[in-house]
Amino acid sequence: MSITGALSNALSGLTATARGVETTSNNVANALTEGYARRELEVAARNLGSEGQGVRVVGVRRMIDMTLVGDRRLADAGTGNRDTRAAFYQGLADTLGDTGDGSLLARISSLSSSLVAAASRPESTARLQNVLDAASALARGLNQASDAVQTARQDADSSIASQVDQLNTTLARVKDLNAKITEVRSVGRDASALEDQRQTLVDSIARIVPLREVQRENGQIALFTAGGAALLDGRAAEFGFTAKPGIDATDRLADGALGGLTLNGRPVRVSGETGLMAGGSLAAAFAIRDELAPQEQVRLDALARSLVDRLASPSVDPTLGFSDAGLFTDSGGAFDPADEAGLAGRLSVNVSVDPSRGGDLWCLRDGLNATSAGPSGNATLLNAIGAALDARLSASTGGIEGAYSLAGFATETVSLVSSALLSADEEASFAAGRRDELHALELGDGVDTDQELERLLRLEQAYAANAKVITACDQLINHLLEM
């Protein structure tokens, strides 16, 4: 080998080791950076004719297992979906309570106990006041539960609007990064940093909608949902959604009262196993707004109707007509069976027994429509109210089969919420465990600082060896010049 060839080899070696040190240093510096993919320098032999002329830097390669990343993204979507559902049931369970003070069951028990106490001394104003207080507390408990359901629907609707905005914004940014990556690659520069940014953006979309990434030419990518909808393939999809302020129990998507999702101007099905957008937090928000929360509202309304119907019968209170409101009313009036939706939120105690609103406590003892107080020792009506609450009746609505007392009906309602919460928590835990395991496997392909430092030592040795070759060439050239 000539001196010139040796010098050329050494110089190319110095260049390659310098790039290697830069790449390895970046790996160490970004070992804890979220979304950073480990880099490796690609080198190849440089030939001139049949003779070797050292090495050349081919480029920098991002070391990432896209199959593993794709599975982790699907797990992210599953976690987002299950966490959203579990949060809904947790909020409703917290409102209903179990059996502690302030729970729905405790309020029913308190009403029954106060009726027994008042029946033992029907002349006692204090005990009649306790009955009124317990009845009012029960009505408020159902009001609060209904409000919690409708608040969850409103929050879900707002969340849908926010997630749709995030989808549109992020997809547009991914499209821009696709163009920049192609531009950078076309001039032979390293686009790894841009690809890291793009991966982070795609990861943020994956929690909202389960997706798959497909590689295209010139470093670009296409994105498709697990259901087959194209999110990005050359151009970014445009999602549309109109939020509705003030959702109430009667609002339904099927009736056009609530907004649906559109994709490029066309309606798209979200919920259900065959939905194009099913599986992520967006689908969970739609499920809460249009399926889960309305189902719980129907059960609460059925419980409220059972309470109203039990005490609005002339067989319980002979002073009532068949069209009169009983102890519990629909916003102060008689209940219309055709207007059951939202009854739990409108439930109130009849004003005729509330002194603070112009009523009389003795109406609890003598009848809601009684014109004057009767014998103070008559406990017939109080006993009849207690018996009506304890009577085992079949629910006319709500999908709960069997005959129950009011307390049994409420227990069944609370149990269904608790069962749904337990199931949702189990599914959320499983989804989180799967996601964490895949994330751990993904991190296993990330930066290992020990290996990177070992690589730095080898690069240092290679740099020193090339430097010695240059020094030797310099000495040889000087010796030749001195001859």
Short structural description:
It contains eleven helices and 13 strands. By secondary structure, it is of the alpha+beta class.
Order of helices and strands: HEEHHHHEEEEEEEHEHEHHEEHH
Low-confidence runs (pLDDT<50, min 5 residues)?
Answer: none
What is the tally of helical segments? 11
Computed CA radius of gyration, to the nearest angstrom: 36 Å
Largest sheet: 4 strands, antiparallel
The geometry reads as elongated
The figure for the number of domains is 2
Task: Report the span from N to C terminus.
Answer: 21 Å
**Relative strand content:** 5-15%
Mean pLDDT: 88
Percentage of helical residues?
55-70%
Read across the widest sheet, the strand sequence of neighbours is 3-4-5-6
Can you tell me about this structure?
The protein has 483 residues and is an alpha+beta fold. The chain has 2 domains: 3-64 and 445-482; 98-412, no CATH class. 57% of the residues lie in helices and 12% in strands. It has helices at 3-29, 66-96, 104-120, 125-186, 192-208, 281-311, 343-346, 363-366, 380-390, 406-444, 449-482; strands spanning 38-48, 51-63, 211-215, 221-225, 230-233, 235-236, 239-240, 262-263, 266-267, 328-330, 347-349, 393-394, 403-404. The chain has a 4-stranded antiparallel beta sheet. Strands 7-8-9 form a 3-stranded antiparallel beta sheet. The chain has a two-stranded antiparallel sheet with strand order 1-2. Helix 6 (281-311) packs antiparallel against helix 10. The chain is elongated. The mean pLDDT is 88.
